[in-house]
Amino acid sequence: MLLAWCMKTRTIAxxxxxxxxxxxxxxASAALDAKSAHDSGEGTVRVFEASTQEMxxxxxxxxxxxxxxxxQNHESENYFVTDPSEEDQIGIWVEPAGPGKTRVTVxxxxxxxxxxxxxxxxMKDISTALTLARNGQSTEKRP
Length: 143
Description:
The protein has helices at 2-30, 34-39, 52-65, 119-134, and strands at 44-48, 71-74, 79-82, 88-96, 102-110. With 143 residues, the chain is α+β, with helices and mostly antiparallel strands. It has 2 domains: 1-31; 32-134, Alpha-D-Glucose-1,6-Bisphosphate, Chain A, domain 4, CATH 3.30.530.50. The protein has a 5-stranded antiparallel sheet with strand order 1-5-4-3-2. A hairpin with a 5-residue loop joins β3 (79-82) and β4 (88-96). α3 crosses α4. The longest helix is centred in the first third of the chain and has 29 residues, at 2-30. The termini are far apart.
């Protein structure tokens, strides 16, 4: 009887350790967000012939076109990110790159099994929004 109790206790302890290890691994992968990815050098970069104000406005317009969560502005640090949803998170960095030039970096954290935005598509949308704004057209909706 004592042997059966010891075996049962060890099994429960093993299962508990396994659950703890697996949940730790899941939390570690969930901790990777757009900001962390950017800080690790990930993302799609393009330099635009435009002011940072123009690019900030164009980038924000694109967030209305891609419903992936509320925008969290970090303007003093030259970036904003969307609230991470179950599928996607977008981060956009808008930084001066010389007179009349702005470097834009887009990071998309995406579940590849689901449809949603990708970095190239978001960058293309930013370019489109900039063109619309410069032509005096509305950027409220995707053309």
